[in-house]
Design brief:
The strands form 9 sheets. Strands 2, 3, 31, 32 and 33 form a 5-stranded antiparallel beta sheet that branches. Strands 16, 17, 18, 19 and 20 form a 5-stranded antiparallel beta sheet that branches. Strand 4 (51-58) and strand 5 (66-73) form a beta hairpin. Among the domains are: 17-46 and 302-427 and 496-540, no CATH class; 436-487, no CATH class. 8% of the residues lie in helices and 34% in strands. By secondary structure, the chain is mainly beta. The model is unreliable at 1-28 and 574-589 (pLDDT under 50). It has helices at residues 3-8, 450-455, 458-477, 575-588; strands spanning 13-16, 33-36, 40-41, 51-58, 66-73, 84-91, 99-101, 110-117, 123-129, 146-152, 160-164, 171-178, 189-195, 205-212, 223-228, 232-235, 239-240, 246-253, 265-272, 283-288, 308-311, 323-329, 336-342, 353-354, 370-377, 383-389, 400-406, 417-418, 436-438, 485-487, 502-505, 511-520, 522-533, 544-547.
Length: 589
């Protein structure tokens, strides 16, 4: 029997168990509850490198068609470093299986991907490209920065694009929304974005909007929405209300990230009633705290808040046009997932409320940490929120994806439920790193002076400012204790999952969570179907068996065999080696 016959004659049967979090039907519970489906891997473990910064969307016409996007390093190292690129995966069976695809003319150097659906089911994929002209970027990609958009009108069978938006300055963090109403701008695709840094005028930051009325084939000229000389403006999700009103949301943070001003980052909302051509003056809607403790910036060096916005525009929802906002911060001394709601289309917002229900940190233990919340709302008005959380690991190095939901428009939330079936941990074999912060009260000659900072490039200056601010924060925390030498041998908490993660609500009411996960050492993407059941009569998953031969691919290699012992070597006890060995024996006799 040859290898082909071996696989052809083998039938694989999968037993699907009731997901954790589900309850027995024999014990009815009148309260709403959350049902978590099995964790399913989205990204390949053989190509495209480690993943972070992911987003997911379901077709407005077909709840079974899903598109997931992410950033990816260009190699297969277990880290998330290396030249940036973006990856895309599609599912046509509601996330049960996934296939990675390569978009036309996709280059290295891409970042900040996003995906969304139009009212006709057309799916849009967006990627930012900084360009080689921006200091500190990699050699790949075009010289000038741009934003690229692809679209598929037929559920991923054909892709159009990329179409490049006209960007007068280097772009960063582009976000999309589509007008799903029956108004005059139905189907209009909006792209809000900000300048990556003060690349044209020093200490001057800008935010823009482009839109398309032909399915993403052409875009308008950029509309300058605002500028500021105090700190970077960062675009967040634009929202389109049920009457076609466009809301552009953004917030502001300050350099360096450890600057005390980042404990009060302002968030804003812009309103347009003519399809994005003109806007009312910006309205400040609140303040965000810093995502990581100042004195632990090295431990969480790339972590900072990206607030996520969404709107309930379902005609069937009693909370129609209610707006929701989530973010994280680490003040004062506790890492928290925050939530706020606007019941008057963004004019006023509720006081922030904490969503994480973990117990307080143990005295003297490592600080707990959670980050990158994301919010979505389904057709029935149920609000889902997901985030990375380290509460289950006593060392606070490993994270799991958590979820909670509200059935009453954000007034109350269900208990937190873990989505991940395994922890995501840093590589246990990674070599330790050591850093020392001198917190002496004496000023050292080696510290840069203001004139030195002014002479540095932007990147050098921000790095130096961050170092100074970290040392100042440690000194402040240890005031009165004299000089302190701070040494850390484990920076595993700094493994980067990105600035945002994925959650979508399909038209059948189910949520789909997407997150970065290191359970297999390489940081991959996993997804799970999440249902919020309003009553015990809601059907729950049951255990069943079904042939899955056509859905399984066995990848063998490299094969190893000890001729003397007639068995695989001790280092080759994996299922892959055993399959290869069985195949060879069948072929030989």
């Amino acid at each position: 029997m040859g290898r082909r016959e071996f696989f052809a004659s083998t039938t694989l049967v999968l037993a699907v168990a009731v997901p954790h979090g589900a309850q027995d039907r024999s014990a009815p519970d009148a309260r709403p509850h959350i049902v978590i489906g099995p964790n399913l891997r989205v990204s390949s473990n053989t190509t495209s490198g480690s993943r972070n910064e992911c987003w997911i969307a379901a077709s407005a016409r077909n709840p079974n068609f899903l598109v997931a996007v992410s950033q990816a390093s260009s190699d297969n190292s277990p880290t998330t470093t290396g030249p940036r690129r973006c990856a895309t995966a599609i599912s046509r069976n509601a996330g049960e299986t996934w296939r990675e695809i390569t978009l036309p003319k996709q280059d290295d150097g891409a970042f900040d991907p996003m995906v969304t659906s139009g009212p006709d089911g057309r799916m849009y994929v967006l990627q930012g490209v900084l360009g080689r002209s921006v200091p500190g970027t990699s050699a790949g990609g075009p010289r000038e920065g741009t934003i690229r958009v692809w679209s598929t009108p037929d559920e991923g069978r054909h892709w159009r694009g990329p179409v490049e938006l006209k960007c007068p300055v280097a772009p960063d963090h582009p976000r999309m929304a589509v007008d799903m109403t029956d108004g005059p701008h139905r189907g209009r695709l909006y792209v809000a974005w900000n300048e990556v840094a003060d690349t044209v005028f020093r200490r001057k930051f800008h935010i823009f909007l482009n839109y398309s009325d032909d399915g993403g084939q052409t875009f308008s000229e950029p509309n300058l929405l605002g500028s500021d000389d105090q700190g970077k403006l960062v675009a967040t999700e634009p929202l389109v209300l049920s009457d076609g009103t466009l809301l552009v949301t953004y917030y502001q943070y300050f350099f360096p990230l450890s600057d005390q001003r980042n404990e009060h980052q302002p968030a804003y909302l812009l309103r347009s009633t003519d399809g994005g051509d003109t806007f009312e003056p910006p309205r400040k809607i609140g303040e965000l705290g810093a995502s990581a403790w100042r004195y632990l910036r090295r431990d969480f060096g790339r972590a900072f808040t990206l607030p996520i916005f969404t709107a309930d525009t379902s005609a069937a929802s009693r909370f129609r046009d209610r707006l929701y906002m989530v973010w994280d911060d680490a003040s004062p001394g506790r890492s928290t997932i925050w939530f706020a709601v606007s019941a008057d289309r963004g004019s006023t917002w509720s006081a922030p409320r904490a969503l994480n229900d973990n117990p307080p940190d143990k005295e003297g233990g490592p600080p707990d940490f959670r980050m990158t919340p994301v919010v979505a709302v389904n057709r029935d008005g149920a609000v889902g929120v997901a985030w990375y959380d380290r509460r289950d690991d006593p060392t606070r190095r490993c994270w799991k994806q958590y979820f909670t939901a509200s059935m009453d428009g954000g007034e109350t939330f269900l208990p937190n439920v873990v989505v991940s079936s395994a922890p995501s941990c840093p590589d246990k074999d990674a070599p330790p790193t050591v850093y020392v912060s001198n917190t002496s009260t004496e000023i050292e000659d080696t510290l840069p002076l203001p004139d030195d900072l002014d002479a540095m490039s932007d990147a050098e200056r921000r790095q130096a400012q961050d170092e100074l601010a970290i040392a100042a924060a440690i000194k402040e925390r240890t005031a009165g204790d004299g000089a302190v030498l701070r040494i850390a041998f484990d920076r595993g908490r700094s493994v980067w999952p990105g600035h945002y993660t994925g959650l979508t609500a399909a038209s059948d009411g189910a949520f789909h969570a997407l997150w970065a996960d290191r359970r297999n050492r390489l940081q991959q993407l996993f997804t799970a179907r999440v249902e919020v059941a309003a009553s015990p009569e809601t059907p729950r998953p049951t255990t069943s068996e079904a042939p899955v031969t056509g859905l399984v691919q066995v990848i063998a290699g490299p094969a190893k065999f000890d001729e003397a012992k007639a068995r695989p070597p001790s280092s080759c006890r994996s299922a892959t080696c055993r399959i290869v060995r069985s195949t060879r024996r069948s072929a030989s006799g």
